[in-house]
Amino acid sequence: MSVMMVRKKVTRKWEKLPGKNTFCCDGRVMMARQKGIFYLTLILILATCSLFFAFECRYLAVHLSPAIPVFAAVLFLFSMATLLRTSFSDPGVIPRALPDEAAFIEMEIEAANGNVPQGQRPPPRIKNVQINNQIVKLKYCYTCKIFRPPRASHCSICDNCVERFDHHCPWVGNCVGKRNYRYFYLFILSLSLLTIYIFAFNIVYVALIGFLNTLKESPGTYPFWQLHLFICFFTLWSVVGLTGFHTFLVSLNQTTNEDIKGSWTGKNRVQNPYSHGNLVKNCCEVICGPVQPRYCWLCSHSGQFLENSSCDMSAGSVQTIRAMGTPSLSSRVVLLEVH
What we know:
By secondary structure, the chain is mostly helical. It has one domain (13-110, 123-338). It has helices spanning 36-63, 67-88, 99-113, 181-209, 211-217, 222-252, 256-261, 279-288, 315-324, 329-338, and strands spanning 21-24, 29-32, 93-94, 126-131, 134-141, 146-147, 153-155, 160-162, 167-169, 174-176. The strands form four sheets. Strands 3-8-7 form a three-stranded antiparallel β-sheet, with no helix packed on it. The chain has a three-stranded antiparallel β-sheet with strand order 4-5-6, covered by helices on one side. Strand 1 and strand 2 form a beta hairpin. The protein is elongated and about 85 Å long. It starts with 20 loop residues before the first strand and ends with a helix.
């Protein structure tokens, strides 16, 4: 007697994510839907480095040092690795509230606001939390039905709330947030060094071989290294400038979103509660701090968030969440951020 085993299809949480993201590799790779400029980034980097290795490197390795192509290869591989890590990583997308959680939050808001007279606008949906002896406002997201954690924001392109939202970068094809900001910063830093390196040795190559000799001996290579210099020259200013700007933000423990809105400067005159007041400590926290696990996108879909799941969260965070005894997703996410 044969017994037929019917395997039940398991629906992963990333398959039900309502935002505008694309997934592959069983949910391990996450990107925005608009990838055209990301492909342009790959083409520019690959084309520039290919031209350098094909023409200048061969001459410079013989007449100057064989270490020149080796160091260029290290910078190239590191830049590509950090670019792909930034592009394919979950930036820190916060799950939307489940229907029961959304209803519970609505009930809490109505109870707090009381009866609003007809014709009057209800008060804004804001909660106040204290971080480092400073009041920080948590705004309600009408799309995700949650009170966003501190420093989180809703990306209109990906249609998701992202933790410690910095900006949406079309050049990497993804949002830049809490989980992939360090890789984004290392990418633009290494790309700046690579661009300066290639541009400098392009000039050295022309100086050594001579401009007129180049045209006489190998006229076919003239369009290639001319194009090479052109790409490097115009890329240099934008990439180095962007790296300098983000180095400034890292030293202050500030995001691009906060800088644009003037959250800690200008009229508000409010000190940044996340800054340690020390450049080294701020850099260590942003670049070298622990990477937060994903919000269970690889787990099977269920009616509860985090409870009874097997995702790799820290023990302290899970215990804190379970100890709250409330179905409010916003409260759980906020507690994770403040801790």
